[in-house]
Design brief:
About 50% of the residues lie in helices and about 5% in strands. The protein is mainly alpha-helical and about 220 residues long. The chain has a two-stranded antiparallel ribbon. Strand 1 and strand 2 form a beta hairpin. The N and C termini lie far apart (about 35 Å).
Length: about 220
């Protein structure tokens, strides 16, 4: 889906996954099930990317303002969206790291990011693909739904993630590869030059996230 996302212009602070992940659990990390490691690891990896150096405080690192103001704070906000991503990837049989990377590339995990062509939500659903999507409905019903969502952690993005994962799955099947599927997700065509660049960027980030979560980075 061709989108120019409205996001904060900030220098990103990215770093390796810290071993402190185990402190969140009573059970040693090596004994946790794969699903728990995936969800917890992705939450931590994305949270680190939602930070910026706060130069006025001698290098102190803080989260983006839009993330800090989310109900429950930044970590809870990201954890909710990561859960939606993993659930959607399982439902539509797509790589959760790829879907997590699409969300980062399209919206930086901001539910209210918008694109020039009317794209909305964490995966920037284009208006032409919004069939049955309550989040993007116009009129009073849609506005009531959005007002309710603003009071919730993750802001009702579960259906948006499911919708986006379904679109990606269908494009990948039609194009014959995840690379082609990502190109079509971005431009509507399996073989466009711009779409190929988008696919490369998303897959590179997906590889980085996978390494942070599964590679045992210190």
């Amino acid at each position: 889906m061709k989108a120019t996302t409205t996001v904060l212009a900030a220098a990103l602070f990215a770093g390796p996954l810290q071993a402190a992940e185990t402190e969140k659990h009573d059970t040693p990390i090596e004994e946790l099930d794969t699903d728990t490691v995936l969800r917890s690891g992705l939450t931590h990896a994305i949270e680190r990317r939602k930070r910026i150096p706060w130069h006025e405080k001698r290098g102190e690192v803080v989260h983006w303002e839009v993330c800090r103001k989310s109900p429950g704070g930044c970590a809870v906000h990201i954890e909710a969206i990561v859960d939606y991503i993993v659930d959607a990837s399982e439902a539509h049989e797509v790589d959760p790291y790829v879907l997590a990377s699409i969300v980062w590339t399209e919206s930086r995990y901001q539910p209210y990011a918008t694109g020039k062509a009317g794209e909305m939500g964490i995966v920037q659903i284009h208006p032409s693909n919004r069939h049955g999507l309550q989040w993007m409905r116009k009129g009073r019903e849609g506005e009531r739904y959005r007002k309710t969502c603003r009071k919730q952690v993750g802001q009702c993005q579960h259906e948006v993630a499911q919708h986006g994962a379904g679109i990606l799955s269908r494009y990948a099947a039609r194009c014959g590869s995840i690379e082609g599927g990502l190109a079509a997700y971005n431009t509507g065509r399996c073989d466009s030059t711009a779409g190929a660049k988008y696919a490369t960027r998303v897959l590179r980030l997906a590889g980085d996230l996978r390494h942070e979560v599964e590679g045992g980075s210190a």
